């Protein structure tokens, strides 16, 4: 079986020769970059951390070496005699031997604004700052460290990393730049803890919550609060313009006022608390409390209405009582009239039929006799 005319070994020689020709021949490159650096990177952190003030914030990245050839592979395929003796004679340049070996990468980090100028109040560094013995295909983990120093900084900046490659003789072969966006952490991180998160109260009443507020930021600041309530419930902080130093905690009072309602079976009303400061005007949610309203409330108008209703009921009862009294008197009068009528009938029938005295002719006359008999005994006495 015949061997192929061009083997992988010859392909490697051709590619390396082209690289040497490009490296040795004069080229015109942009002042900003010289492509000899040739590295790429990815950020290992899924979310870039916010850079803190006066404290180093670490950003982990992975750097991939994308050099033009792989020295490890080249060294495995050719002998030292071929590379260091034959090739210099072949290419007519004894200095090209500086490309034969592992290279060195150096990192320099700074912070620039959107216009490419150095950002004021920022610092950046990279660890490690030098990587030795690297070539195409090598992977390196590095760490960018950044921090801010001033109250007022540009919050949208980039870390600029200059990557410089040096050959085996220590001479600069080329460089390129990597850019990573940076964002400053909020200067007024504030924490709130409520001594009591839920309270019960009646409609149209006032209740109070004690809140512990701590400045978790890095600078002294003046904080203000905004309260957003549900169902007409209103809140007010007793200390508007709270001055807090870094790490300082103060207790404030939240006064909650419930709306006017005659009856409430039990309604849960959430009070959201937002904070903003002199340095950061963004309203930031810091917590909430809950007020449960239940019970009755009688306002002046309610009392007047209830009073009118009670008086109306009393007058109605009095009117009904009087009407019933009149009906009762009328019935008594009619009963007496009937009684007199029966008595007349009795007397008349007595005369006509000569009925014995006091002998009742029916049940009604018997009752009449029993009623009248004691009166006649008194007359005899």
Characteristic key phrases:
Immunoglobulin-like; 381 residues; 3 domains; 5 helices; single chain; 17 strands; alpha+beta
TL;DR?
The chain is an alpha+beta fold. The chain is 28% helix and 36% strand. The strands form 4 sheets. The chain has a 5-stranded mixed β-sheet with strand order 10-17-16-12-14, with no helix packed on it. Strands 1-2-6-4 form a 4-stranded antiparallel β-sheet, with no helix packed on it.
Could you explain how this protein is built, in words?
With 381 residues, this protein is of the alpha+beta class. It has 3 domains: 8-182, Immunoglobulin-like (Sandwich), CATH 2.60.40.10; 190-297, Sandwich (Immunoglobulin-like), CATH 2.60.40.2310; 301-380. Helices cover 28% and strands 36% of the residues. A 5-stranded mixed sheet has the order 10-17-16-12-14, with no helix packed on it. A 4-stranded antiparallel sheet has the order 1-2-6-4, with no helix packed on it. β7 (157-166) and β8 (172-182) form a beta hairpin. The relative contact order is 0.09. The model is unreliable at 1-6, 18-31 and 376-381 (pLDDT under 50).
């Amino acid at each position: 079986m015949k061997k192929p005319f061009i083997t992988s070994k010859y392909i490697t020689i051709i590619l390396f020769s082209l690289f040497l020709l490009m490296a040795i021949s004069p080229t015109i490159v942009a002042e900003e970059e010289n492509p000899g650096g040739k590295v790429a990177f990815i950020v290992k952190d899924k979310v870039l951390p916010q850079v803190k003030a006066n404290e180093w914030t670490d950003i982990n990245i992975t750097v991939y070496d994308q050099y033009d050839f792989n020295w490890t592979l080249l060294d495995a395929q050719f002998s030292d005699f071929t590379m260091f003796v034959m090739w210099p004679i072949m290419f007519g340049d004894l200095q090209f031997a500086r490309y034969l070996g592992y290279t060195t990468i150096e990192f320099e980090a700074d912070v620039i604004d959107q216009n490419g100028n150095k950002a004021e109040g920022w610092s950046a560094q990279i660890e490690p700052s030098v990587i030795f013995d690297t070539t195409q295909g090598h992977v390196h983990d590095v760490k960018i460290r950044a921090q801010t120093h001033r109250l007022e900084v540009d919050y949208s900046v980039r870390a600029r990393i200059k990557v410089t490659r040096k050959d085996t003789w220590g001479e600069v072969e080329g460089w390129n730049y990597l850019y990573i966006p940076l964002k400053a952490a909020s200067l007024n991180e504030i924490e709130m803890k409520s001594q009591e998160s839920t309270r019960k109260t009646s409609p149209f009443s006032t209740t109070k919550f004690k809140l512990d507020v701590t400045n978790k930021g890095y600078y002294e600041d003046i904080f203000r609060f905004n309260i957003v309530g549900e169902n007409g419930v209103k809140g007010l902080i007793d200390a508007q313009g709270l001055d807090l130093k870094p790490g300082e905690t103060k207790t404030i009072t939240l006064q909650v006022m419930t709306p006017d309602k005659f009856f409430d079976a039990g309604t849960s009303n959430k009070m959201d608390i937002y904070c903003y400061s002199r340095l950061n005007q963004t309203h930031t949610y810091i917590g909430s409390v809950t007020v449960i309203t239940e019970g009755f409330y009688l306002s002046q108008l309610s009392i007047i209405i209830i009073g009118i209703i009670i008086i109306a009921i009393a007058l109605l009862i009095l009117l009904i009582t009087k009407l019933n009294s009149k009906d009762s008197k009328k019935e008594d009068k009619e009963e007496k009239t009937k009684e007199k009528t029966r008595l007349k009938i009795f007397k008349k029938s007595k005369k006509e039929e000569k009925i014995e005295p006091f002998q009742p002719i029916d049940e009604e006359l018997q009752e009449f006799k029993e009623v009248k008999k004691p009166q006649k005994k008194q007359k005899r006495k």
